[in-house]
Amino acid sequence: MSILTFKGGIHPKDGKALSKAKPIKTLTPKGEIVIPLSQHIGVPATPCVEVGDRVLVGQKIGEAAGFISANIHSSVSGTVKKIEPRQIANGSMVNCVIIENDDSYEEYLWEQKDYEEMSKEDIRAAIKEAGIVGMGGAGFPTNVKLTPKDDDKIEYVIVNGAECEPYLTSDYRRMIEEPEVLIEGLKIVLSLFKNAKGIIAIEDNKLDAIVNLKKLTRNESNIEVKGVYTKYPQGGERALIYAITGREVNSSMLPADVGCVVNNVDTMFAIYYAVINSKSLYSRVVTVTGDAVVEPGNFIVPIGTSFNEVIEAAGGFKKTPEKIIAGGPMMGTAVFTTDIPITKGTSAILAFKKDQVAISKASACINCGKCLEVCPGRVMPSRLATMAEHGDREGFIENFGMECCECGCCSYICPAKRNLTQSIKSMRKDILASRKK
């Protein structure tokens, strides 16, 4: 039997043992909540509340401002204090709704609909109204992803349960603690595509989750659980599609172009709660871990909660960390302050005693070819990084620089410790900005 995987990739230390066995806890924040109106790819939401308004848990406070946009909801009940720019994890200043939490957590009640009587349009409308986006980090509006040009051409709905990023265990805990919700969420999505088969893809280092989900789906004719090879970035959309179907997706294509729809585990949970319970997306599971954290664990955190409160819930720091990352160590963002809010895309907060990247010194490329061997996009990272450093935009494009998925494998494996991914990422960002203009 062939191993389901992709070409390239690496095997970094996974660090999952720190939080893997820790059940999810619910965090109840106190005081001010800062909810960004831009937590997704596309146009920021437009505020639909004013300073002085009282809002409830789950109430819409930001209206999607375009096709590629998403609604934003309050995660607490309280009074809107300000609507102003605040800093988020990537360092940018975005418009935010600041709410003074009244600690009553009074919920906003949606109009309840019977799922059995909902049409495809009703399901997509509920997902849109709930403000659901991809929660693996990309933040693409889910209702758009679930509205391809032709529903009948979708052959696979893939649940990304790989969780290949080191240290992250939030998806694993979801699959272990509430597998039935995941399956029901997948069934809801499958109801939109009559020709599709559901695949729950899980890395084979999570054998207990694979065994249990296989048991629970044994009588489901159009759902299958597949173990995929444990390797980073197995959970990348292109890599996962190739591993499951053998089909290739490039930067000019969407998964729907090869008959696939891919959704993260937490996104599937959000779909279930939106359609079945009429609940908007205002919280998510966050892994708090790293060797500087006193008590690593997983927490359901209301959107807008300060990193400081989440870190405190994990017991704080053993010592002042040299490096704090929002997200995973490979594709996350290093932050210089913890006075920033949790967003829909915040999968983890990592804190490390030592900054291993800062202490390493880059030297000249030795032409070993290791970056090419591990690159899942099959491009030439060392050459692309050199072009990026010299501003050679034309050469960068001609050498398929836009095919880079910014996974970080090349920087990880480079014996010369060159900042390959960072250089390539900067050039890609510059080119994309020019194209938008």
Outline the structure in words:
The protein has 3 domains: 22-110 and 280-352, Ubiquitin-like (UB roll); 112-277, 3-Layer(aba) Sandwich (Rossmann fold); 370-436, no CATH class. The model has no long low-confidence stretch (mean pLDDT 95). With 437 residues, it is an alpha/beta fold. The protein has 14 helices and 17 strands. β13 and β14 form a beta hairpin. α4 crosses α7. The protein has a 6-stranded mixed sheet with strand order 1-14-13-17-15-16, with helices on both faces. A 4-stranded antiparallel sheet has the order 2-8-7-4, with no helix packed on it. A 4-stranded parallel sheet has the order 11-10-9-12, with helices on both faces.
Biggest sheet, spatial arrangement of strands: 1-14-13-17-15-16
Write down how many β-strands occur, each being a DSSP E stretch of 2 or more residues: 17
Termini Cα gap? 49 Å
Given the structure, what is the number of helices? Answer: 14
Structural class: alpha/beta
CATH superfamily of the largest domain: NADH-ubiquinone oxidoreductase 51kDa subunit
What's a quick, concise take on this entry?
With 437 residues, this protein is an alpha/beta fold.
Write the layout of secondary structure elements.
Layout: E1 25-26, E2 32-36, E3 46-47, E4 54-55, E5 60-63, E6 72-73, E7 78-87, E8 93-101, H1 120-129, H2 142-145, E9 156-161, H3 170-177, H4 179-190, E10 197-203, H5 207-216, E11 223-228, H6 237-245, E12 260-264, H7 265-277, E13 283-289, E14 297-302, H8 307-313, E15 323-326, E16 333-335, E17 348-352, H9 356-359, H10 370-374, H11 381-389, H12 393-398, H13 409-413, H14 420-436
Parallel strand pairs: 1-14, 9-10, 9-12, 10-11, 13-17
Antiparallel strand pairs: 2-8, 3-5, 4-7, 5-6, 7-8, 13-14, 15-16, 15-17
Helix pairs in contact: 1-7, 4-7, 11-14
